[in-house]
Amino acid sequence: MTTFTINDTPADIVKVFPKSSDLFKKNRIDFCCGGDKPLAEVFAKKNMNEGAILGELNASYLDWKSKGNVETDWDQISNSELVDHVVHTHHAYLTEELPALGQFVTKIYRVHGGSHPHLVNLHKLYNTFKMELESHMVKEEQDLFPLIKKYDVDPSPELLEKIRTVNTAMEEEHDTAGDLLKQMHDITNGFEPPVDACNSYRITYARLAELEGDTFQHIHLENNILFKKLA
């Protein structure tokens, strides 16, 4: 039975125990773009109660295991299988959700922007995020992922170097997406709707929170598992 300690990184913990991402999000602990720092460093920087968070983390993991859940050994999954998982799970979700959610963001901005000025910035941030992610997915599916699948079948040092160069650019774009999500999180008070929010307002915030969670998982799988296997 695994016991997580302050020497573990958030990225490695989420790799073993995906549900830990909920706890990390609640405590604003980065597990994707900047998830490679030991918890000790994170706790010290944020002045957090390490005992309380570790206790909750390990209790949650024990409960998760007791219900028959089993860790996914990502190291035993081929790069091509992981690419297919990202495309069919996370890219498919974004392709469907980004335009649909954009309509809700625009609606509450038009209706409530006058009394809730932060919705002006939310509208700008969301549309920038949408544009960035749509462009990013095209680059991955047309440029990066075919190279990775080719490397699985016919590896060469030259192809690996090309993949690493593209990966660096993709990680930079992941950082940009993560920063935009953090800004949206902050200006909406953690996607917490105001007391006078209408149903559309509440639905928009709930879907933004879901988008944040899925995108962080998406970036985590690429940065901390797929790209590291090709580093």
TrEMBL record:
Keywords: Cytoplasm, Iron, Metal-binding
Any GO molecular function: metal ion binding
GO CC, alphabetical: cytoplasm
Hemerythrin-like domain sequence ranges: 85-230
Pfam families: Hemerythrin, ScdA_N
Subcellular location: Cytoplasm
Classification via InterPro entries: Hemerythrin-like (IPR012312), RIC_family (IPR019903)
Name under which the protein is recorded: Iron-sulfur cluster repair di-iron protein
Species annotation: Aquibacillus halophilus
